[in-house]
Amino acid sequence: MFILVNFKAYDVDPVAIATAAAAVDAETATNIGVAPQAADIGPVSETGATTWAQHTSPVEPGSHTGQPLAEGLARNGATGTLINHSERRLTLAEIDASIRAAERAGLDTIVCANNPDQIAAVAALGPDAVAVEPPELIGSGTPVSQADPSIVSDAVEAAAGVDPAVDVYCGAGISTAEDVDAAADLGADGVLLASGVAKAEDPAAALDGLVTE
Amino acid sequence: MFILVNFKAYDVDPVAIATAAAAVDAETATNIGVAPQAADIGPVSETGATTWAQHTSPVEPGSHTGQPLAEGLARNGATGTLINHSERRLTLAEIDASIRAAERAGLDTIVCANNPDQIAAVAALGPDAVAVEPPELIGSGTPVSQADPSIVSDAVEAAAGVDPAVDVYCGAGISTAEDVDAAADLGADGVLLASGVAKAEDPAAALDGLVTE
Amino acid sequence: MFILVNFKAYDVDPVAIATAAAAVDAETATNIGVAPQAADIGPVSETGATTWAQHTSPVEPGSHTGQPLAEGLARNGATGTLINHSERRLTLAEIDASIRAAERAGLDTIVCANNPDQIAAVAALGPDAVAVEPPELIGSGTPVSQADPSIVSDAVEAAAGVDPAVDVYCGAGISTAEDVDAAADLGADGVLLASGVAKAEDPAAALDGLVTE
Amino acid sequence: MFILVNFKAYDVDPVAIATAAAAVDAETATNIGVAPQAADIGPVSETGATTWAQHTSPVEPGSHTGQPLAEGLARNGATGTLINHSERRLTLAEIDASIRAAERAGLDTIVCANNPDQIAAVAALGPDAVAVEPPELIGSGTPVSQADPSIVSDAVEAAAGVDPAVDVYCGAGISTAEDVDAAADLGADGVLLASGVAKAEDPAAALDGLVTE
Question: Can you list the domains of chain D with their CATH numbers?
């Protein structure tokens, strides 16, 4: 399993959480990654944590201002990027171009979507992975694997029907090892989470709580 | 005069250009700033160059993904931010909120706009500075101070009519000391430029050429 | 006073409400206008009601798909258009261009904004009128003239400071004649409302209730 | 074959072109539809022409301003709607919701996309039809069936691989019966065009030229 912790625009110390994530990653069989804001990618990657961007621009190098160019993310230490997160939706053509941009810069890709139909749609664009996050469960505290397990298994099936090589993640409401295990049982290759770790009083303990039971 | 060099999403070495900018800034009476991509702010600010963001998100800390939070830009070394660049247009409410976000994080602000009426509009929102950039001249190679000098003097007058404390910059097509001097003669407090320096074969020489005659 | 009733995307009979509005307009000293969806402008204007668009595209005639061209709204009976409604925010450059598009087609303009600073900003662009609608009060049932009267008087002052010829409207939570009178006492030239009339069980009675006490 | 003529935001007489389209539709075996701006849907549909919207909002009835609600388009005479036209791009979630909105209102759907991968993506969302339009050929005068025939046959194959019930259209540069026949030979069920008819000096003759050789 791969657990990716999105720091969003939380008022937190990204280096401290990344340091904790790198330690848990080293001590356990679970792979942990972190997704800080673009400006924090450099110092976060220097902790040794597997570092992802929250978003990459679909553009090629050129006259574009205020957008995170894939090459700029990569040269500061990112090894992957979320695309089309529910808080950063893109047009279909931009999703397609963002996957191409990430490939160009050597970044892995996880493309987010709302439901199994949309998962099939983004799987058709050839990303490394897709992630299903039902909008109504984001930030709800109720894990998707419990509130709506079929959405996870349907997403796994939908992606496999289009491209069996595409990994499938799920997200929304995940905060315990039980939730992570339930996601794995439903066929997910990993989970996305955010506040459960990044806003925890003790992020290291929260991460430990995800990988041990 | 303040010269702000926007690195856009150019395929350039941001640290090398920033190092050159810091040197010219130290050796001359002209203040030079640089605006790299968000992920490059840390290494660029470590050169000692005055570092600006190309864009800041209007949001407050919280559940927002893939947006550059003002606090995140500031903690990595940015001291100011462009807002509403012609390649990163915002709604009016977002411009207002972005100025508030920058103030919250201690970032200076330059809000871009197309013409004198829009300059008056953004001056009413209380930024530190405004910048007029006629869209048809961006990247044209023809300096705004020569192609349409009245747009600069009208922008200076428009901003002063709303708030005399707001500085006024101009941009588009500027590449020589003569262009910079012409902007100053028209009442501008500084200039924005991009390709003239950032894509020059020798950025240090291009910067020298802006401040000496 | 001018009362403009926004039909939004409500599931209502636009012709029936417009017919009621035209009757109240004819029988009283208050001017009533209605703002249906673009596709309903023709049949609504045929009732004799003063018909406004909810939005106009900033574009000039040409290769643009799925946008309401100002000339198309006008030829079907619209005499004015809202611009930058809180549910249809535009960039500053688009607000400017939308005012120009409306002028080109002979449409009156009301540009919406959140607060007095933004009112000053949009007044600088030369619309016929501006409308202040505090986002937190929209749909709240609490009239802006009661919840935050200073926002209305400050907006009136802000607009007058930029351009005394610009009319000022207010909106959010208005549903009674008392609310309308309070808005007038604060210096407003008119009010915007929506659900209070459009979703009323008896829209004609709701309109009567706005103009008589 | 179905030929859908997009009137875009052209400065043309929509009723005149629609009248010509209805006549050609009645006189030939080819089905002709027209896609006027939202405000023109009523008078255009009264000509008897098969009338499509250029865009429908993804929203359900409610508090949404300046967006064409599917029900509003349908009650004024539209029988179908384009979705995600290259000049009106939507996020993936909006494309999905727009298809649902159109179904709710009884409108047929054609979802546009750039290339065969994106065609597979949108086919996964269950529209009635998809349309491939290579952006670089739009308005080029060079028909897609001639410039890049494999993009059409690849799109037909990509859609069939996802859902054989989805019709496939192509567009960009089509202006003659030869182009239409070439599209049919490549497996297309119809074509989208715009300026070739809508901006022709004699739209009726241009339509005749599409269906006879």
Answer: 2-59+67-211 (3.20.20.70)
